[in-house]
Amino acid sequence: MTNTLEATTQIITSNELLDHWIGHRRLTRRTIEAFPEKELFTYSVGGMRPFAEMVLECVAMTIPGIIGVKTGEWNTVDELMHHSRKGTPTTKEELLNLVDEVTEQMTELWTEIPEERFREKDRAFGQWEGTNYWFVLYWIDNEIHHRAQAFVYLRSLGIQPPFFWER
Amino acid sequence: MTNTLEATTQIITSNELLDHWIGHRRLTRRTIEAFPEKELFTYSVGGMRPFAEMVLECVAMTIPGIIGVKTGEWNTVDELMHHSRKGTPTTKEELLNLVDEVTEQMTELWTEIPEERFREKDRAFGQWEGTNYWFVLYWIDNEIHHRAQAFVYLRSLGIQPPFFWER
């Protein structure tokens, strides 16, 4: 234990965390693009959801999530589920447009988050207790998780997925 | 832009980043446990690798990666690939034991990383340029990515994967 005292030093800035998320969002976008239009909304392995539905889950959480981190005011999970069913995209182009809109909004909203909020405890969507930075990591991880499942869908369709390391 | 100045505040500590990784490692462990022994080493969808091979990739990077972050001395990718073929586990129990050993080692080594190293630029495994905290995020993301693919394998085998949110 050579550096017990320094172990509370913070090592990642909020801007870096946003960049990390946006990099993953770009990869998610390329993954959507790799799908044939029909399979994006219908193809499944092992009874799981089509990739378009997984993307909608991730995208539907982004803005209400960031607003929660910013303000401490959270939609409930029910409101979130309701929100995510409104104006659901039915084509690849509509889905890509939604992803782009949300990405633009998240970047704007992020700059308005008071920095101290990231280290505050809260109850995300009125349900999950934790620290705000951790909720953000969770949403990023959730996006990585579902997109990785889409990589398997693509491979089983004989399509080369985008490169994981390219952001 | 209400808080341009504060945007360089760090929001995640090195201990929290380790906890985040270890939480994911526990979920990876539960995912291994969910597989039947044979399928862990042989089952594949879309011509991808069996999950045991993906786990070995993740686990093989962990210790050399943390040593690189700690010391600035990196194995090359060739050495890494060689290392990952040494004493390869052939049973579920051996794989779980390897995961446990590596998790214990990583926790010990982590406390020896000088905190300033996380913000320094380096060339991971002699090949990828970046900042050390970002390499760590990459290794965690890579583990999430491959484990998510194993979730599809499990579903297509008719097996319920562990809960993603449980760490």
Which CATH top level class of chain A fits?
Answer: Mainly Alpha
Fraction of residues in helix of chain A = 55-70%
At the fourth CATH level, what is the homologous superfamily of chain A? Answer: dinb family like domain
Low-confidence stretches of chain A: 1-7
The number of distinct helices of chain A, counting runs of at least 4 residues, comes to: 6
Mean pLDDT of chain A: 91
| CATH-defined fold name of chain A | Four Helix Bundle (Hemerythrin (Met), subunit A)
Oligomer: homodimer
The separation of the N and C termini of chain A measures 35 Å
Silhouette of chain A: globular
Question: What can be said about the biggest beta sheet of chain A?
Answer: 2 strands, antiparallel
Strand content of chain A: 5-15%
Number of domains of chain A: 1
Radius of gyration of chain A: 17 Å
Could you give a quick summary of the protein structure above?
Two copies of one chain form a homodimer. The first copy, chain A, is mainly α.
Write the layout of secondary structure elements.
The structure is a homodimer of 167-residue chains.
Chain A lengths: L9 E4 H21 L2 H6 L8 H21 L5 H9 L6 H19 L10 E4 L3 E4 H25 L11
Antiparallel strand pairs in A: 2-3
